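Researcher: Please generate the 3D structure of the following complex. Treat every line as part of one assembly.
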Amino acid sequence: MPYPAPAMIELYHVQKRYPGQDAPALDDINLQVDKGEFCLLTGPSGAGKSTLLRLLFLAEEATRGQVLIGGKNVAQVKKRHRPMMRRNLGVVFQDFKLLERYSVFDNVSLALDVQGRRKDDVRQRTDKMLEQVGLAHKSDQKIAHLSGGEQQRVAIARALVTDPAILLADEPTGNLDPERSNDIMDLLLRAHARGTTILVATHDPALLERYRHRVVSLKAGRVEKDERFR
Amino acid sequence: MMRTLSVMYRHALRTVRAAGMPFFVSVLMCAMGLFGLAVFATFMLNVDRLTGSVSERIRAVCFLDVKGLAEAEEVEARVAALDGVKHTVLVTPEQALEKVAASLGEDGQAARDSGIVMPFIVEATPAPGAVGDGWLGRLREVPGVDEVMHPSADIERVDAFLDLVHGSGLFLAVLMGLVVLVVVSNAVRLTLFSRREEIAIMKLVGATDGFVRGPFLFEGFLQGVLGGLVALSLLYLTQEVWSQVFATALAGTLGAATFDSLPVSSALWLVLGGGLLGLCGGAISIGRFLRV
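Model: Done. Output below.
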């Protein structure tokens, strides 16, 4: 009997409650995402998708329950070790979170710079990643001069350039036309094919229909459905 | 390690460029603070030199109780052999009377005609730092010396005043240091506020606290160093104006009004001190407001 794939993301009875709010943003969430899995997280606005992602990229702490990333309980990771943990996570934010004063190249290479990688390695990886997302020709341009779709691709390039074990994406195709959305999703699928565990928060029905591997539906902070299609 | 430092340096330069006007305002404020400090240090340096040279120039006048020139020369030799005596001059009664007459100006002739008999005098010039160390007492104990005149009480009063000025200078130095600290700290805080989103992004992609802090510490250090350099430039400019305009005008009052510049070592300390204060200002700001 084969060994089960180790879980990359594990949540046990996780609750997240914000001060001053009656209902918790997340309540009794139990979820395991295996290594190399492609998982879509869906649900209406306010269902808790973004909150769940924020817990995973260590922007917030759970009020109750356990969150494990790569087998490590994040509550027990010391503050000074968190940057090392984040380096294994690629995150694509809904609002991109790009540095407007930096060039495309500098935005993408930042993720490698903070790791203290060698200059030629940084140059090589960044150039390669920009080529993959089709922005090699705009390497020196400032972010402010790019379209929304191009900025989204820069955000994805930054998230993937370090070859992270896990990629978290919050509405990566939000406000993009269907063609651009498919381009973005293709980039994520390519990363998935290389073995990256992918968790994408979306409420785009077209994406859910087309890229259904595993779909976890949240409603009012709880897991409503967890369906595996492949 | 070197790679990380090089990347931090690059980000620091970017930080400085992004800081824009607040950075340069803060450099100017630092410069003003350090300039005040440098002016005061230069002033004290020159006051010390001036008072030191005055106290060294003031000779002790030893009135001798001797019968003739040969005996006076023996006493002079004994005075010259004392510790703390740099130089002696024997003044005969005739020369002494002539000096008195000369000092009286037009009334001097009356002194010449009065028939006053002056004693032999030995003028003893103190070696640097010798006055006040029982020096006058030793002069008085020399056989043949009847009385010694020296304005030591006045010199002590000047010394006491200088001690007070030195104390004030220390207080001023601490005050200026605090000013630089607050200015740099606030300038870095402004930069931090304007770049808090950028810092958050750097943290989210895995930057360590050190990586984020480094550029801001560098910015603080750079502000302090540049402030120090501007302060030094202003100081030397002021000295030039002083030596060309005021020193000439005051030369008649103060004698040869030469002016000593701040020594190179002190100038280096000023720049380095500015840098260190800037570094501390940056560290305080990050510690209090970044909370990374």
